[in-house]
Design a protein that fits this description.
Rossmann fold; 15% strand; alpha/beta; five-stranded parallel sheet; 2 domains
């Protein structure tokens, strides 16, 4: 076995997760690709697996720094920053961490929808600031229960979101590459515009990457209408963000709940002037329990590779 078979790559790796990886396998650490390039060539040639945690593009140039690389084990279900065709061309497998984060991401989607409807941030501020006695009650909010919701992408996470919203007596519509077995929910094929036209709330739950860029188009946003609300827990790129901002500023849709943004963590400052949006810092999977489960699944994929066993959650 190589003396240093594992590269831990990415400044986002926590001390706990790094210690767990290092305890399991002889490792070298690099916070980013510049730091990786500074690792001596002999060590880089020993690396067979990468435990990756980051939001920087991992393409063929990065892979070529590791001539004997066999697997990139991504921390997260989304792997849009790992250029899978480049990996496949080099015989490198990619894995991710699906399923273990479904509940947390779905919970946050519902929480943002409710927070947007009930103006909960403004409500908290009214009480916390001491302004309630002078300013009185907030303007009346909007009822969520009994509304119509469209799920863009009824995959693992989309299904969890839909199941939760069905408990709020909502009528469920959805798009997907194929029709799913549901309790009579309305299928719109892959026509997001048709979906948007039929619903009050549009929840985006598709994977990121070039193939899904601006899936929620300007036309779809316009089709939502003045009571429409967008909730996005997928990737910022899946929505035409400029079109969304234009609609929010013009009041042609009612609002949005967003956990993801184009160019994050830098966020378009146009959002900050809007009181009709609920903003979160990409924390869909951000609980202690789920992040630990993700780290364990990442380690399982690394170990499977290094021990010559089938990968647990391969992408390619």
């Amino acid at each position: 076995m190589s003396r240093t078979p594992l590269l831990i790559l990415g400044g986002g790796t926590t001390a706990e997760d790094r210690a767990r990886l290092e305890a399991a396998h002889a490792s070298v650490y690099a916070a980013n690709f510049d730091a990786l390039a500074e690792v001596d060539a002999e060590t880089r040639a020993q690396v067979r697996a990468v435990a990756y945690r980051g939001h920087h593009r991992f393409d063929g140039a990065g892979m070529d720094l590791l001539p004997n690389l066999e697997v990139i084990a991504n921390f997260g279900v989304g792997y849009d920053q790992i250029i899978v065709p480049d990996a496949t061309a080099r015989g490198v497998k990619v894995t991710n961490t699906p399923d273990v984060l479904n509940d947390d991401v779905a919970d946050l989607a519902v929480a943002m929808l409710l927070a947007q409807c009930r103006n909960m941030v403004a409500g908290d501020a009214r009480v916390r600031s001491g302004a309630w006695p002078d300013k009185g009650e907030l303007p009346l909010n909007r009822k969520a229960t009994g509304s119509t919701v469209g799920i863009v992408g009824l995959g693992r996470i989309g299904r969890e979101i839909a199941d939760r919203l069905a408990a709020f007596k909502m009528e469920i519509h959805y798009t997907s590459r194929s029709e799913k077995e549901t309790p009579g929910w309305t299928y719109h094929g892959e026509d997001v515009v048709s979906l948007a036209r039929a619903v009050d709330f549009l929840v985006v739950a598709i994977v990121g990457g070039p193939a899904t860029e601006k899936t929620v188009s300007r036309e779809a946003i316009e089709a939502l209408g003045p009571r429409g609300v967008v909730v996005n827990i997928s990737r910022g790129t899946t929505i035409d963000e400029e079109a969304l901002l234009d609609a929010l500023e013009a009041g042609t849709i009612a609002g949005a709940g967003l956990d993801v943004f184009v160019g994050e963590p830098v966020v378009n400052p146009r959002f900050f002037a809007l009181d009709t949006v609920h903003l979160q810092p990409h924390q869909g999977s951000g609980t202690v329990e789920t992040r630990r489960a993700m780290a364990m699944l990442q380690l399982e994929n690394v170990t499977a590779c290094l021990e010559g066993k089938p990968l647990v959650t391969p992408v390619n």
